[in-house]
Specification:
This protein is α+β, with helices and mostly antiparallel strands. The chain is built from 3 helices and 4 strands, in the order H-H-E-E-E-E-H. The longest helix has 17 residues, at about 5-20. It is globular and about 50 Å long.
Length: about 100
Amino acid sequence: MYAPTDLAHEIGHAVLANTGDLRGDPWLNTGLEESEWQTTHFENQVRSEMRLPLRTYYKKLKEHNPTTGEDDYYPDGPRLIKKGHFSVYVPNYDYKKENPPSK
């Protein structure tokens, strides 16, 4: 977890709630409410602007590895990004095109 991107996600919920656009219905049988798709898209816009890796899955499962004594994390839930940097929620939204790398 990273505080600035976690905050961006929660601000996304707040903005949607304040504008009346917070959608609680499931989106395309993905098991997630549409509001989570909306806010993770906003979070990924912020991640892209900050040149951070995009959030590719909604959540991660934690599993303790007894051999190493460390926790391993595995992606879980619907995939949020396709082809490396395109939004699943907003058709044809290219995070790299919107925020190209600085030279």
